[in-house]
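FAQ: What does the model actually see?

It sees only this:
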Amino acid sequence: MNLAQETAAQGSLLATILPLILMFVIFYFLLIRPQQKRTKQRNVMLSNLKKNDKVITIGGLYGTIIDLTDDKVTLRVNESTKLTFDRNAINGVVEDNKEENKK
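And it is asked to produce this:
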């Protein structure tokens, strides 16, 4: 093989690998990185839970935290009903807007 043929072979190898690398970079920024950010935000939210927080579960149940352990949460959904959930079943903390309550 002469030098021109070796250069052409290396160029075709680069042309073959470059689209794969480009696709991985696009997938990383469009899919992987945003998912990692959401997971990190969710873990921070779950670690910051405290008593008397108003929350919503992944099933859509609203309640107030009355007891909290490392892996379980007990919610009061009305005056007489208490339900125990896995901590990962909490979907989010509900912000209580006092301005909306006045209306």
